[in-house]
């Protein structure tokens, strides 16, 4: 008797199709991620300038005084840390605002779906809940390995 051939989990358990979303919701999601990437790039540019460019300009700024200390010393001692904390706060507040905008777009899309399909009731609610989950969560490596069965 021949040994059984291994069965690949991908062929027996294909990944589920993502739920269909409207064009408006897809655009809102695309705008959300473009904003996120642009915000991160801008904040990282400021962090780079504080971390690397300001120390390069330290000799030229040594005569400038701030709070009784030379400006390069102040930035090295506490100014840079305060700027990094400010960058974190700016990111948090900006992303909360972007999250609210995306949620409003999702809610408007859900209301439009309810209006266009009266009587769909529970089925459309389940589809909207699945769409919300797929748009707001990113799969982790552990979840991917569990899904593949490895």
From TrEMBL:
<feature type="transmembrane region" description="Helical">
    <location>
        <begin position="73"/>
        <end position="94"/>
    </location>
</feature>
<keyword id="KW-0472">Membrane</keyword>
<dbReference type="Pfam" id="PF13937">
    <property type="entry name" value="DUF4212"/>
</dbReference>
<dbReference type="InterPro" id="IPR019886">
    <property type="entry name" value="Na_symporter_ssu"/>
</dbReference>
<protein>
    <submittedName>
        <fullName>Putative solute symporter protein</fullName>
    </submittedName>
</protein>
<keyword id="KW-0812">Transmembrane</keyword>
<feature type="domain" description="Sodium symporter small subunit">
    <location>
        <begin position="29"/>
        <end position="102"/>
    </location>
</feature>
<keyword id="KW-1133">Transmembrane helix</keyword>
<feature type="region of interest" description="Disordered">
    <location>
        <begin position="115"/>
        <end position="150"/>
    </location>
</feature>
<feature type="transmembrane region" description="Helical">
    <location>
        <begin position="37"/>
        <end position="61"/>
    </location>
</feature>
<feature type="compositionally biased region" description="Low complexity">
    <location>
        <begin position="119"/>
        <end position="132"/>
    </location>
</feature>
